[in-house]
Amino acid sequence: MTKKMQIWKCKICGNIVEVLHEGSGALVCCGELMILMGENSVDASTEKHIPIIEGNIVKIGSVLHPMEDKHYIEWIEGVGKDGEVAKKFLTPKDSPVAKFSFEVMKARAYCSLHGLWK
Ligand SMILES: [Fe+2]
Q1: Which of 6, 7, 59, 67 could join 37 via S-S bond, C-beta 3.0 to 4.6 A?
Q2: Please, are residues 46 and 63 in contact by the beta-carbon 8 Å criterion?
Q3: Residues with CB under 5 A from ligand 1 (ion)
Q4: 54 C-alpha to center of ligand 1: Å?
Q5: 82 CA distance to ligand 1 centroid (A)?
Q6: For residue 103, how far is its CA from the centre of ligand 1 (angstroms)?
């Protein structure tokens, strides 16, 4: 059983998928069950991952998260009060900041090394 907006990852090939519609089946990739990515919200490491919402802007970390080739924020997601959901996909050359066209109520981000954050 899946839930809308869950993020699942294949531990073999690295595929990552998001659920857009709930179903009763299990998600399988490379012949194995996919892993549900938990949404971390307590940051114990030195670099920061918690999304900080300022109106329609979301930045990752009270001190901006590093953006390096092997360790960077892959995407930032913003959720609005009227059901809007948008993602900004980033490269290591970008800043870990996203500007949306709506006021953001909730946000998530995906770090290439440290997983999913809210
Ligand atoms: Fe990280």
Answers
A1: 7
A2: no
A3: 111, 113-114
A4: 21
A5: 30
A6: 25
d(CA 39, CA 103): 21
Q: How many Å separate Cα 109 from the centre of its chain?
A: 3
What is d(CA 13, CA 5) in angstroms, rounded to the nearest whole number? 21
Residue 75 near residue 89, CB atoms below 8 Å: yes
Cα-to-centroid distance, 113 and ligand 1 (Å) = 5
Strand partners, 89: 75
Tracing tokens 């900080």 back to the chain, one arrives at 52
The two tokens of residue 59 are: 């930045």
Write out pLDDT tens, residues 8-42.
999 999 999 999 999 999 999 999 999 999 998 87
91 burial level (CB within 10 Å; 0-12, 13-18, 19+):
exposed
Going from the Cα of 52 to the center of ligand 1, the distance in angstroms, rounded, reads 15
Give distance in angstroms: CA of 23 to centre of ligand 1.
31
